[in-house]
Amino acid sequence: MVRNMDYRLIIGLIIAHILVYITFDFSKVFWYIFTSTMLFLISYAIIHEKMEDEDTFIKYFFYGIVFGALTFVLIFLGHFLIEIFHITYFEKQITKLYKIASPTLWWHFIVLVLIIVPGEEIFWRGFVQKRLMNYFNPWTSILLASILYASVHIYSGQFILVLAALVAGIIFGALYMWRRSIPFVIIAHLTFDLLLLVIFPFR
């Protein structure tokens, strides 16, 4: 049960929704605006919450790659079912999303690795989920943080992205709860994104 209103969390979530809305509303310059969005959210999270890292480099690097790959396999199976059953609605959404969010220029890859992926984990797991843990039990915190993470993806207009964000959010949230290491979850998320967007894209 919530004891006190967490204004820093509420303000952070409102800012995240506004910035992500703007990001998708100006999809032609997606990479510019999304990079700025994540830089702002990183700053907000770091100012208001201490980041955790209870793992050694070898552990979080190894585990991160393994669980990032497993997350990709899970999403891949979902995509496989979409193709098997030929769900045109989702197939069109996936194609549209790749046109908007796939890295194509050299600097896209740099900001993906150094800003976007770390930023999402620092804000959504290291700030949002961690603050929710002050009020709810671990699994409720993971679920709520994942729903909130998925909610900002509504502005993409693609339901498949909202669903994928919810699933990934639960997985990354559980990993964070397990290891209490933001670098570990960043490596997992980065591995997943590189497999999904660069190495084995669904297109």
Concise account of the structure shown:
By secondary structure, the protein is mostly helical. The chain has helices at 7-25, 30-48, 57-84, 88-101, 106-132, 138-151, 159-179, 182-199. The radius of gyration is 16 Å and the shape is globular.
The main sheet comes to: none
- What is the 3D form? globular
pLDDT < 50 stretches? none
Radius of gyration, taken over Cα atoms and rounded to an integer in Å: 16 Å
Q: What's the β-strand tally?
A: 0
Distinct helical segment count: 8
Class of secondary structure makeup: mainly alpha
Query: Mean pLDDT, rounded to whole units?
Result: 94
Order of helices and strands: HHHHHHHH
Features:
mainly alpha; 203 residues
Task: Describe what this molecule looks like in 3D.
With 203 residues, the protein is mainly alpha-helical. It has helices at residues 7-25, 30-48, 57-84, 88-101, 106-132, 138-151, 159-179, 182-199. Helix 1 (7-25) packs antiparallel against helix 2 (30-48) and helix 3 (57-84) packs antiparallel against helix 7 (159-179). The termini are far apart.
